[in-house]
From TrEMBL:
SUPFAM superfamilies, per database record: DNA/RNA polymerases
InterPro entries registered for this protein in UniProt: DNA/RNA_pol_sf, RT_dom
Listed PANTHER family: REVERSE TRANSCRIPTASE DOMAIN-CONTAINING PROTEIN
This protein's name: Reverse transcriptase domain-containing protein
UniProt domain Reverse transcriptase: residue ranges: 35-304
TM ranges: none
Amino acid sequence: MNTINSGTPSHSCPHHILNKASSVIALQLRKIFNSSFEYATFPESWKHAEINALYKKNKADPKDLKNFQPISLLPFPAKVIEKAVNRQLTCFLKENCTLDPSQSGSHRNHSTETALNAATNDIRTILDKGETADLILLDLSPAFNTICHHTLRSSLSNAGIRDRALDWVTSFLNGRTQRVCLPPFHSKATKIICGIPQGSSLSPTLFNVYMVPLANTARSYKLNIISYAYDTQLILFFAKTNLHGRMKAIAKWMKNSCLKLNSDKTEVLIFGSTPSVWDDSWWPATLGAALTPTDHARNLGFILNSSLSITQQVNPISSSCFNTLHMRRKIYKWIPTETRRTVTQALASSKLDNGNAL
């Protein structure tokens, strides 16, 4: 319990109080958890969530609701049991090689950097053959909210999660309620018929299982796909043979899985010494408006451009780190050496080290 630090709904006991009382309530919580697993039932009182809006981008329009990320504040005991279940579920999926190998966030010693390395390596491989590569960054930002519970249960069953374990997950998903909170205002609580909570410890793993069929569909059409954790940005790059048919298959899977593409934030990059003529006739209408190529795009915190140059990534970061260190140099003489190192690592080195392998 002491390792969990998160927000809680206004109607719940604050997590810091429960942390301090952990030695007293741990035994009772264990009994509740064991009963929950034995009867494959998730406690009803832990299914209510309060939704807070998290501003995603500093320079985005704050009046546009698309620039806010809904975060579910869940009861603290619910997060404890979710963490225990998630640990066992992740171990089971890894032991049975059920998780998609291209999902960097679900594998040990993998990160955003390994996902970016895989993407750029595949692009360079295509370029070495004298071909052009089209990279499409699909944005499925509302994915957590639209996940079909029936489809998720089928995916879990195919992954080997059955019987009482599957019944417990079904109970975890069903009967949930939520309300939106913009202090001092609160909406009325409403029932949730689809989706998984954004702030849940278990949701990222469930989402990874849900997305496995998409990777299988892409590979069956000889498309490369790379993703990271529950970041819903997927990377596909391919030759243009039968492109419409391939993307139509992707569109069909997304429709059947209740996923909708955010075409406003989906971007296309074209790589190659001889730029290809962009023809959007292959883009299925069911995926939204046709795309227009751009010369650079941000992917997993790293700016990629059509020439695979990192100038647009390095220059602003170098300038930012220089300004940060210059401003803090005046106070460095007043703080211990170890604290200086910590500040430098947190505010400068961590930014400079991002994407070193690229």
